[in-house]
Amino acid sequence: MPHQRQVIAEKVRDLLLGQTVAGDRVFVNRHLPVREDEVPAILVYPALTERVDPESEQTAPRELTRRADFLVVGLVPAPDDGEGDAEAKVLDATNDIAVEIERVMHGDQLLGGVAAGSILTGSELETDTVGDRLIGGIGLTYEVTYRTLAPEPPAAETFDRFRTANTTFNLGGAVHADDVVEDQVVVQPEAPPP
């Protein structure tokens, strides 16, 4: 079963598919360089670090409220029309894909029900050359809040199961055989042999 971080990243991808100029070129955890013919594209990266709310310690069963920064990167090429300032045009195109991403993310802040909330907390825009083409990139950071139950520890079968208890009660005073009550409590009967 994947971790909730991965579930969230895949849900962000699903929400963005077909909703921006990138079309179906939306990738999760892509670490290969993006080729010139693969842009426009969107890359989604789950958090490398996250914070757990200290209030989680007060829950039983233990429910962890997590806040993680997810990075959504929009990549667009400079228009290939040969007219005007390519740098200015690629910045305009980069801002356009940022608006498209933000519209989708703001439209479903619970990310299809896999998160408790999400909000844009920062962005960073830059340009670079890929092959012969100027590419614009916008990195949008979203703080995503989600909750998980603390994982169960692995079952340990190294101890004997508590199955019966023998109890002895003395009714008080001097110990006389007539004043002692004995009982056997069966907590869990022996399992039949396989």
Protein model, in words:
With 194 residues, the chain is α+β, with helices and mostly antiparallel strands. The protein has one domain (4-149): 2-Layer Sandwich (Alpha-Beta Plaits). It is 18% helix and 37% strand. The chain is built from 2 helices and 8 strands. The protein has helices spanning 4-16, 86-107; strands spanning 26-28, 41-45, 50-52, 63-77, 117-130, 133-149, 164-170, 180-186. Strands 1, 2, 3, 4, 5 and 6 form a 6-stranded mixed beta sheet that branches. Strands 7-8 form a two-stranded antiparallel sheet. β5 and β6 (133-149) form a beta hairpin. The two termini are 31 Å apart. The mean pLDDT is 85.
Q: Give the helices and strands as they follow along the chain.
A: HEEEEHEEEE
- The shape, in one word, is rod-shaped
Stretches where pLDDT falls below 50 for ≥5 residues? none
Number of strands: 8
The CATH topology name reads Alpha-Beta Plaits
User: Residue-averaged pLDDT, rounded?
Assistant: 85
Strand content: 35-45%
CATH class placement: Alpha Beta
> How many structural units, i.e. domains?
1
- Major sheet: size, sense and barrel closure? 6 strands, mixed
Oligomer: single chain
CATH homologous superfamily classification? Phage minor tail protein U
The helix fraction, in percent, is 10-25%
Q: Give Rg in angstroms.
A: 30 Å
Structural class: alpha+beta
* N→C terminal distance: 31 Å
What's the number of helices?
A: 2
- Provide the CATH architecture: 2-Layer Sandwich
